[in-house]
Write a structure and sequence with these properties.
It is built from eight helices and no strands. By secondary structure, it is mainly alpha-helical. The longest helix is centred in the middle third of the chain and has 31 residues.
């Protein structure tokens, strides 16, 4: 008794669409289950991969050499298509993430670190006595010269230097604790 699958395969290779439809019916449930399980992380892709499996099989049926069962070959086609889709989806997601961060802009981790550091510096500044805080902000944040800071605070340049020194020491002490907490 001749193998019905072999006959369908031979007729499909000869260009008989009804014979290929018969092959599809033989394997559609198995292929659908396979595609749904392999593409489980991308269920929206599963239907496309399922259809592409049979489309690819139809186009490349002449390449099927019969060294394995037709079902095994179809499984390989489906799995390869699914893996290609998942890789492409991952690449698109990575590209979209890269595109969402302008060139030279910090990535998400760097943005979080900068935000934490900014909050720590703000808290450390807030803990300084007001006269030290003003000297540090005017000199180090606003970029004023010692003479400009002295005029703004109505104090001498040596007094600015003294307040600035004490303020910086206070910041260093406060931020050393922050730096130590980041290491652990």
């Amino acid at each position: 008794m001749p193998d019905p699958e072999a006959a369908l395969l031979a007729r499909s290779r000869a260009g008989d669409p009804a014979a290929f439809a018969g092959l599809v019916r033989r394997y559609e449930d198995r292929m659908y289950r396979l595609v749904r399980s392999v593409c489980v992380s991308a269920p929206a892709e599963a239907d496309d991969v399922y259809q592409d499996t049979f489309l690819t099989a139809y186009k490349k049926l002449s390449a099927f050499q019969g060294r394995s069962e037709l079902g095994t070959w179809l499984y390989r086609v489906a799995a390869n298509l699914c893996f290609m889709r998942l890789r492409a989806k991952k690449a698109r997601a990575a590209s979209a993430l890269e595109d969402s961060v302008p060139d030279g802009a910090p990535g998400p981790e760097e943005a979080v670190r900068k935000k934490e550091l900014s909050e720590a510096v703000t808290a450390a500044l807030a803990s300084l006595p007001p006269e030290h805080r003003l000297a540090v902000v005017l000199r180090d944040v606003e970029g004023l010269s010692a003479a400009e800071t002295a005029r703004a605070l109505k104090i001498s340049i040596p007094a600015v230097k003294s307040r600035l020194h004490r303020g910086r020491l206070g910041l260093k002490a406060k931020l050393a604790g922050f730096a130590e907490s980041r290491k652990s």
